[in-house]
Amino acid sequence: MEFTAKTISEFLRGTIVGNPDEKVSEISKIEEGKKGSLSFLSNPKYTKYLYTTDASIVLVNKDLTLEDKVKATLILVDNAYEAFASLLQLYTQSLPKKLGIDKEVYISSTCKYGKDIYIGAFTYIGENVKIGNNVSLYPQVYVGDNVTIGDNTIIYPGVKIYHDCIIGSGCTIHGSTVIGSDGFGFAPQQDNEYKKIPQIGNVIIEDSVEIGSNVSIDRATIGSTIIRKGVKIDNLIQVAHNVEIGANTVIAAQSGISGSTKIGKDVMIAGQVGIVGHIRIADGVKIGAQSGVTNSIDKEGEIILGSPAYNISEKRREFAVARQLPNIYKKITDLEKEVQRLKDGEKKS
Amino acid sequence: MEFTAKTISEFLRGTIVGNPDEKVSEISKIEEGKKGSLSFLSNPKYTKYLYTTDASIVLVNKDLTLEDKVKATLILVDNAYEAFASLLQLYTQSLPKKLGIDKEVYISSTCKYGKDIYIGAFTYIGENVKIGNNVSLYPQVYVGDNVTIGDNTIIYPGVKIYHDCIIGSGCTIHGSTVIGSDGFGFAPQQDNEYKKIPQIGNVIIEDSVEIGSNVSIDRATIGSTIIRKGVKIDNLIQVAHNVEIGANTVIAAQSGISGSTKIGKDVMIAGQVGIVGHIRIADGVKIGAQSGVTNSIDKEGEIILGSPAYNISEKRREFAVARQLPNIYKKITDLEKEVQRLKDGEKKS
Amino acid sequence: MEFTAKTISEFLRGTIVGNPDEKVSEISKIEEGKKGSLSFLSNPKYTKYLYTTDASIVLVNKDLTLEDKVKATLILVDNAYEAFASLLQLYTQSLPKKLGIDKEVYISSTCKYGKDIYIGAFTYIGENVKIGNNVSLYPQVYVGDNVTIGDNTIIYPGVKIYHDCIIGSGCTIHGSTVIGSDGFGFAPQQDNEYKKIPQIGNVIIEDSVEIGSNVSIDRATIGSTIIRKGVKIDNLIQVAHNVEIGANTVIAAQSGISGSTKIGKDVMIAGQVGIVGHIRIADGVKIGAQSGVTNSIDKEGEIILGSPAYNISEKRREFAVARQLPNIYKKITDLEKEVQRLKDGEKKS
């Protein structure tokens, strides 16, 4: 499909600077723009490419000040990144969508499902499962007994959802992720062996949650492990039993949250963070990459870093001095010598 | 199902304080207790809820001293946590269990299996596989050629067990876990390319081992990667080729053990720990979260922490002083000034 | 099969010391050698076993100086490790290989595939997929629409390859790995919710790449996430959207690379390393285990360590002094007392 600058600008309610009849048929990064492609400029680090790109059309923030000639036709919008995201969404919605039920599936006779659904080959759906409208279950998905899946949710290939779990509407779950595996609960015995604590709870995932690939979210021992509305979880993340993650919290790849910890809403957790069990993280807290959080964070909006983690400004000062440690050690040795010399002088006098 | 305090107390050999006819039909956390639910109190952090819970029955340690009125009927037992675990076990055993072989499976003609087994749809079983009695293979499991699986073992959906691996009795393996993938072995060549070292060994998992979801356990180059009896492995854990893990060792989520390292028995490894290759960890060692273990730990029962990891008391003192580093730096600068002043005074005099 | 020392030595162009008619039928580690087995000695840590092993034949480097009597027949070669790898390769090539297409598969009518291929049961192949010659797709693999897979590539059970991705020739991908899941891209909204940025790019994996189990490689937002020729990726690794990894780079288990970062060629990344987004790592850089890389590394061949990571020699000196911190603190307190005493003496005088 081909679009003109005029069509795109009208859709985005933008302003054209250049040729309204300029045509594009594909999307590119600004540094890889070519004739017939549409790009955008949002990150200031990439501004230099605006003056050299071969893209035919570029979306830019309307407050951008041009410092040189630009070959491309520009469309000025309030927020170029969001405008671009809207175009991407429009584009993906225009792609053909799989519908219907492949014949190589296992669907229990007690399963109920809505309309406009896609169930791919080799997907298994257990007893008493309820699936909403417009749901996509890609091939090789496992849906255990008594699971509920809300409208408009997309479950990618190989996802495993254990019995009794609840998945909301408008969710996306990526390949090989496991929802509802047993929590890691064992009672030590006198002979050093461990006795398994059965995990009879479930996992509740509210609406508009996105979960990456190869994620593990364990079911609660009793009650529920809960992922609130709008949470975004990246790949390879561990969520232990009875954890609760507040609305619109974002967690980057390879982080882990131990059992029974409660994370507030609007929290940002960077990659490879570890959080111990049975603590609370206040709303709006930000946790830097590779942090190890060992205590509750009570102050809303606090920014922490390090292992052990504390206030990021304090930690950064510590990091800066730590890098000077060999130098500091020398200073101390010098001081010891000087002081000894002074003491020796004192004795002599 | 409904149970009375009397029935439960008799099963647990406990003592009732309250109404022996009190009835419960479900299980809840003490802080979420409601009429008709059974709870337990073990962690002292939760004692306050005993006086406010709406649970009808609460299991408590018999040595608990009450400090206020309690509405619930209490059942006094030696260890409330273990008693509760026993009830959970009873409860889960009462749940219906899947049996039989779904018709959408691939089972080689040379596979031998015992009685009372469950093989879910889309599970693949290769040549010469031997499966014991009372084994559950959930849907979409892969069992490679020549694999052996012992009695009473449960393999959850999507687990992949490569050829020649041996799984013991009474094991549990959770979704998407991979047992027996190739070890990471490559010989560097003169042109900077790498030549693969074929991995012709296997993985041996002894009895009563539990393995979480999305775990990777690589096969040995030659010989076996060995997980001894009673080991408990959480989610997203890496076990490299030729590793050996001793009996009843417990490993929390996202930890990784590099090639050929031997872990003793009764070791406790917290989350996100990394252990280098070709070392030994003595029996009973405890390793704190996010530690990086770079050398063998020879002393049994040693507790280590940090990256690089050493004795936890030493490390904690180091952490405490590290937090004072900006302050320490100021002290040194002050000392330097003072000493300079003293030296200047000395010269003058 | 049984081989004589003579046959093996001729294949390896080695020199026999001992009995040319000595026979072996299996392969063992040198410390577990037994009559009829072949071992090798490469790592000097294992030299002691040469004098005690029961292996019938041992491959050794031709420059090895014997310090005691050896029972085994030796075959002297230039490089015992590589010679052993060649034998392992010969051995694995002699194993029976699965060929043909199981009947329980889903293959779209528009898929094209070459000769000598294996497609295992419950594997799904979407529209317009192109598969080369001599490719193995184990059971339960997912191959999305428009995917291309080159000759001689092996895809192990449960791998999920999303639409539009390109896999080269001679690649190996292990179980449960996901190629092409959505990058983690969300635009924050004013109400603290996030709007998904559709990820319309793909993943390109060039020739001779090996990827372990439970790995996540996300598709690009636009353009491609690229893994160059000869790269080796261990288990449980995160590769975010728009990352590019240069030729023959090696990455150990549980490491993660954030979005848009470009890694050079011949880079070595140890286990559990985290690398932030939008940076560049020069060719030949080596990154120590558990490092956190927060800035571009511009110097080729630089070796870095730590979190935050910098030059390994500098970091190691810092680690050494850090361990002395409690001692350093005492030195400073002592100095403060001494200086105070000197000042007091000064006043008195």
Please explain how this structure is put together.
3 copies of one chain form a homotrimer. With 349 residues, chain A is an alpha/beta fold. Chain A folds into 3 domains: 3-94, Udp-n-acetylmuramoylalanyl-d-glutamate--2,6- Diaminopimelate Ligase, Chain: A, domain 1, CATH 3.40.1390.10; 100-313, UDP N-Acetylglucosamine Acyltransferase, domain 1; 323-348. The first copy, chain A, is 17% helix and 29% strand. Chain A is built from 4 helices and 40 strands. A 12-stranded mixed β-sheet of chain A has the order 8-11-14-17-20-25-28-31-34-37-39-40, covered by helices on one side. The longest helix of chain A is centred in the last third of the chain and has 24 residues, at 325-348. Chain A is flat, with a radius of gyration of 28 Å.
Task: Give the number of domains of chain A.
Answer: 3
Q: Which fold does the CATH topology of the largest domain in chain A refer to?
A: UDP N-Acetylglucosamine Acyltransferase, domain 1
Give the distance, in angstroms, between the N- and C-terminal Cα atoms of chain A: 95 Å
Sheet with the most strands: spatial strand order of chain A: 8-11-14-17-20-25-28-31-34-37-39-40
Average pLDDT value of chain A? 95
By CATH, the architecture of the largest domain in chain A is named 3 Solenoid
Annotated CATH homologous superfamily of the largest domain in chain A: Hexapeptide repeat proteins
Tally of helical segments of chain A: 4
Rg of chain A computed from alpha carbons, rounded to a whole number of angstroms: 28 Å
- The total strand number of chain A stands at 40
DSSP helix fraction of chain A: 10-25%
The greatest inter-chain interface is formed by: B-C, 62 and 66 residues
